[in-house]
């Protein structure tokens, strides 16, 4: 084996070793506390994925809904025609459910970490093709340890990393055409038809990505439109046409499932998302300037000042060290434009891709930043678990490119080549260390804090199962994300509709409330003011630390 072969073997071995390590790193939460999740969306996806894997269906019948006005369901689950159905996009539970039907339900929480690694591989291979091998390797390594990618890869039942990995796969097959290259080398062996395999694989990845999160079609459409304007004549239109045909063939069954579950092809579990947009986002100066095109371009609202402020707080300031690194790398490359490992020679689309990335990034900032998202009970707290970050995941992926390019250029310009390579490797280790510290150690929503919370949830569920009947109904405020589906749940307590249904609930099944322990004043108000007109009383059943279990009974 020659020197080039040894280098390739070494690179593959190191990459495989890192893949194994990060597979388990990304799987930290599901290995530490299996079966419990920190958000209603994750829990809902896990429940319906397992249901599809085991029973081949995406709905659950809860008999209490037949008498309690379809109110028996947790957050992120809807009731349609008396059946509980997913409250979000169907892509993840269907894709993972199909995989689990073949491999077993135990693999479900580990699919995202594996696919995240494939996404990193696709990104690295694509960048290698267009910007040079070293830049591709560095870009892949930087994405592997990027704090946002790392964090959301560890939330294994959230769809965002799956979405981006599929899109990276589609982009790789469409732009790099590895099968076509193989067919050219091996055509004499009868592999000529492989030249179309890339378009087919790209279409499959794109169709699955749209099934995972159909809302991504907004920024994908903008990206395609910009590319057409910049390099329309040079785009491989026949390949794109085949890709779109297969994307539609893959997406169509998901639309049919939408029709069967929700009554419309384009209806999802989210329903009318625009109903949650604030008046400020609808009626600001920016929205007025856009006029009638505002609902088309920015259906969640358009508030540029709010968007910039949110991006500064969550996208820049929270990861100040990464932002500084990207900024310095960008400035360095700007001054030495065109000298990075022959970028321009290797990719005729380089400028178009970079411009498209900048435009899409700006649009994502305005699109999601204009929306007021409150994941944390304290709206003034900026945490790593904010949904803004998962919506801006494409921006963080793109941000690895200038850093990789700058590092590659520094190696090229160094007089001590091997020392420069070692220095870059140590620098990547430093980035991984800083990133890991923030991902695991961040206050409130770092992985260590979440692990602690999940262990508490696990203990509380064990206690509640022992203290309540199998057919009990638990009224909750936030505990639905870990009590469901082990117990039927209804939320929230502090709702007139809930109070009006309580007598009927108590008449049909043992009914409890589980939540923060009531202060004496609040408990007195329930006992003496709110519940007596309903013919009910509430009695403490168990004290579980900060939370308590109460039972509703007839007076």
First CA to last CA: what distance?
86 Å
Quaternary state reads single chain
The assigned structural class equals alpha/beta
**Total of DSSP H or I helical runs spanning 4+ residues:** 26
Q: Please state the CA-atom Rg, rounded to the nearest Å.
A: 26 Å
- Could you describe the largest sheet, including whether it forms a barrel? 5 strands, mixed
Calculate the mean pLDDT score and round it: 89
Give the tally of β-strands.
8
| Uncertain residue ranges | 272-281, 339-346
Task: Give the neighbour order of strands across the main sheet.
Answer: 5-4-6-8-7
- Outline: globular
* Relative strand content: 5-15%
Determine the fraction of residues in helical runs and give it as a percent range. 55-70%
